[in-house]
Write a structure and sequence with these properties.
By secondary structure, the protein is α/β, with parallel strands linked by helices. It contains five helices and six strands, in the order E-H-E-H-E-H-E-H-E-E-H. A six-stranded mixed beta sheet has the order 2-1-3-6-5-4, with helices on both faces. The radius of gyration is 15 Å and the shape is globular. One of its GO terms (biological process) is Mo-molybdopterin cofactor biosynthetic process. Pfam families: MoCF_biosynth.
């Protein structure tokens, strides 16, 4: 889909969250991919954090950002699989005002073309809480690239046509 260059680009303030028991900033490659892509696109990195796969920790970090007027979008990586420690989708769903069902569906469709039926193990999800967009991607580098390059880069760009998430932001908390 085309960009309407007659519309001025609107940089969004995006927080990046890595959900992992083992990662640090030094080896958080998936989080860094998201940071690199969003800043290259012209958006602003509002904050970045790493939290363990613990519901109270994840809930606290997400709630802090949802309440922060300087964070418009949260993108997380990790914790979307099927193991007992993978709790990201459950925490996201507990915070949503509205789920964006199509985000997870679209992510899996795109992923299927790349990794086949292995995409069934992804529980990528998206929604809105307190006027803040929230997107949970799997923890692999490829998943972060696919999610950003094929969905989020367009939907978070106000110039993308025929419509996009960015232009709806003022009306999310009507």
């Amino acid at each position: 889909m085309p960009l309407d260059n007659s519309i001025e680009f609107l940089p969004l303030k995006i927080a990046v969250l890595t959900v992992s028991d083992t990662r640090s900033l030094a080896d958080d490659t998936s989080g860094q991919i998201l940071v690199d892509r969003l800043t290259k696109a012209g958006h602003i990195l509002a904050d970045r954090a790493i939290v363990r796969d613990e519901k109270p920790d994840l809930t606290a970090q997400l709630t802090k950002w949802i309440q922060d007027q300087e964070v418009q979008v949260i993108i997380s990586t990790g914790g979307t699989g099927l193991t007992g420690r993978d709790i990201t989708p459950e925490v996201f769903h507990s915070l949503y005002d509205k789920e964006i069902e199509g985000f997870g569906e679209m992510f899996r469709l795109i992923s299927y073309k790349i990794i086949g039926t292995s995409t069934l193990q992804s529980r990528a999800t998206g929604g809105v809480a307190g006027g803040t967009y929230m997107f949970a991607l799997p923890g692999s580098n490829g998943a972060c690239k696919d999610g950003w390059d094929n969905i989020l880069s367009e939907q978070l760009d106000i110039r993308f046509r025929p419509c996009n998430f960015a232009e709806m932001m003022p009306r999310l908390i009507e």
